[in-house]
Write a structure and sequence with these properties.
Elements: H1 6-42, H2 55-60, E1 76-86, H3 98-116, E2 136-147, H4 149-152, H5 159-169, E3 177-182, E4 191-193, E5 206-210, H6 223-237, H7 258-261, H8 312-324, E6 331-332, E7 335-341, E8 345-347, E9 350-353, E10 355-359, E11 364-367, E12 370-373, E13 379-381, E14 386-390, E15 393-396, E16 407-409, E17 413-415, E18 422-424, E19 428-432, E20 436-437
Parallel strand pairs: 1-2, 1-3, 3-5, 7-10, 8-11, 9-12, 10-13, 11-14, 12-15, 13-16, 14-19, 15-20
Antiparallel strand pairs: 1-6, 4-5, 17-18
Helix pairs in contact: 3-6
């Protein structure tokens, strides 16, 4: 019998040892890799909101609702109603006619033109990229005529009274933002509107415009000026203030409009009001914007005949109101671009969403607040993600005609190749502490 050379036996043993070593290394790497990848799904850095300390500041900051930002991909349409107030005998103001309806529809379209394609600012701030589309539109849903001499001559700040009188006759109009045309007077103003409420989501908005036209000649009405006036008042409904007397004037204030006033005290500003870092702009209907001796601008809220521009931060503030404040109940729209949660986050806000929410793989969304979803929207939990409804609530938006699309927990997913193949568990939904998910299809 021949024996193998010693070198051959050693080589044979070495090969076996190498194979065993490599196999063990592969198994070790597989387990290590699988463990590491699994851990990377379950363990993520704690919530982060960039420069904002927490979720509350993130969701409350106007900057995050500027058109094009993740929280504002959607064009939203606000449903409005116009109410014509007359004397008890039906006289004293516009009378019902097809021609009047046509003019009011045209007024609404002019509103949309202003909010869809706002003119550039006459006094731009260096370094600011101005936008044209505010992502806000208006749709005229109803025109009504009401006879009441007392309300026809209403004074200051009686908008709620006018609203309630309309709702008593036409309760369905509570779903719309009501604009009242009536005689009235209020300290020389041409009208007024209320700011949206953050404490009461059911509060009603209104515009009161001191407009009366008791002649048949509708062509004599200054429709363009009326549109500018209504647009200005709707700006108040959407939380904008006057840049000539009531905007935030401290540069440190989170709602300061540096894209309107600049980043610091203006060169022409000699004596700011007490407590202000900048000077307000001049404001009057006849202010000549082109005159270098004046400080008025063409801003929508500036109160002059050349008004129209809406700054990016003003757009953000208005869209924030449509997410967080009471005026949101009149607004509808949907974007197929979802809002993605890609880090562990806790949401305590009461917020309306006009798009899907996607909890990304490896992330946890801890909900203690309220989400109000438009009918087209879903909440999607990707594989390896978790939604925890901890005393929170997910429901359909107020005045929705139908339910929202519901929560979708996506099935488990296999990834990788050969030894590195692994399974990511299905999206997980946890409801605790009397959390609620309601009024959904799925």
């Amino acid at each position: 019998m021949k024996s193998s050379p010693v070198g051959a036996r050693i080589n044979s043993k070495s090969k076996k040892l190498i194979i065993v070593f490599v196999s063990g290394l592969i198994i070790f790497l597989f387990h290590f890799s699988a463990f590491s990848q699994f851990e990377s799904i379950k363990i993520k850095p704690q919530k982060t909101y960039g420069p904002f300390e927490n979720a509350r500041l993130f969701f409350s900051h106007q900057k995050n609702y500027i058109p094009g930002e993740p929280l504002n991909q959607t064009v939203k349409t606000i449903y409005i109603a116009i109410n014509i107030w007359q004397k008890d005998d039906g006289t004293g103001n516009f009378t019902e006619s097809e021609a009047l309806y046509d003019h009011l529809l045209e007024l609404t379209e002019r509103l949309n033109m202003h909010f869809r394609s706002t003119p550039p600012p006459t006094h731009p701030v260096k370094g600011i990229e101005y936008l044209r589309d505010s992502h806000i539109r208006f749709e005229l849903k109803d025109v009504g005529f009401y006879q009441n001499t007392d309300l026809y001559e209403v004074g200051c700040f009686e908008g709620n009274r006018l609203n309630e009188a309309v709702f008593a006759i036409s309760p369905e109009k509570r779903k719309f933002l009501n604009i009242h045309f009536t005689k009235g007077t209020c300290r020389g103003a041409s009208g007024y509107a209320n700011y949206p409420s953050s404490g009461s989501s059911g509060s009603d908005s209104y515009v009161v415009s001191f407009v009366k036209h008791d002649r048949d000649d509708l062509e004599s009405v200054q429709w363009w000026a009326l549109m500018l006036h209504v647009a200005h008042e709707l700006g108040h409904n959407l939380e904008l203030r006057h840049p000539y007397n009531s905007e935030f004037c401290q540069t440190s204030h989170p709602d300061f409009l540096f894209d309107l006033f600049g980043f610091e005290k203006q060169e022409w500003c000699n004596n700011p009001r007490p407590g202000c870092d900048i000077c307000f702009h001049e404001g009057s209907w006849g202010c000549a914007i082109e005159d270098p001796e004046t400080t008025c601008t063409n801003n929508l809220m500036g109160g002059n005949r050349g008004a129209g521009n809406i700054t990016p931060l003003q757009m953000g503030r208005m869209n924030r109101a449509l997410a967080l404040k009471s005026v949101r109940k009149y607004a509808w729209g949907y974007s197929s671009v979802p809002y993605e949660v890609d880090l562990d986050q806790t949401w305590a806000a009461d917020i309306k969403f006009y798009q899907d929410i996607v909890v990304k793989t490896g992330s946890n969304l801890h909900l203690t607040g309220t989400l109000k979803m438009v009918p087209e929207a879903s909440l999607i939990i990707e594989p390896g993600a978790r939604l925890i409804v901890d005393g929170g609530r997910i429901t359909n938006a107020l005045y929705s005609d139908t339910n929202w699309q519901g929560v979708i927990a996506e099935p488990s997913l296999k990834t990788g190749f050969l030894f590195w193949r692994r399974e990511i568990p299905e999206g997980e939904l946890v409801i605790t502490n009397n959390g609620i998910i309601e009024n959904y299809f799925r």
